[in-house]
Input
Amino acid sequence: MNTDQSNTMILHSNGTIGYWVDFRNSLVEGSCYFIPYKDRTIELLKNYSVEASQEKVINIANSYAMKYLVQYNAELDSYKAIGNVTLISDDGELIIISVQDMDFSISNENYDIRNIRMNDWVTIEIKGLTLWDEGIF
Output
């Protein structure tokens, strides 16, 4: 992730302190909430290694497209992503969807994932993308 703007620190609804930033990676540019590692100050235009999560899953469905995609919808402040299922927990309650270099965890609490299988290509729509700084220098 390469950060582009904003150094106004805010308290996120999940209780973490971070920044709203514009970012870009190999697939997409958009806005997200960025959580710095151990409260360090972020530097503009610096590359960070991050883990992705989402505030809410809006939709999930099988996809006929078998190509990684992430699209930011500025009007809805949401993201559409296409990736494949790389992990299903033993109890079937959690799946990991890999979208090239981003992984999204989705649980049955958030959305019905019972019909999703390993290696399926799926489309997900998410709200509230959060990037967690891994602290790699």
About this structure: The beta strands are 2-3, 9-11, 17-24, 29-35, 50-62, 69-73, 78-88, 94-99, 102-107, 121-133. The chain has no helices and ten strands.
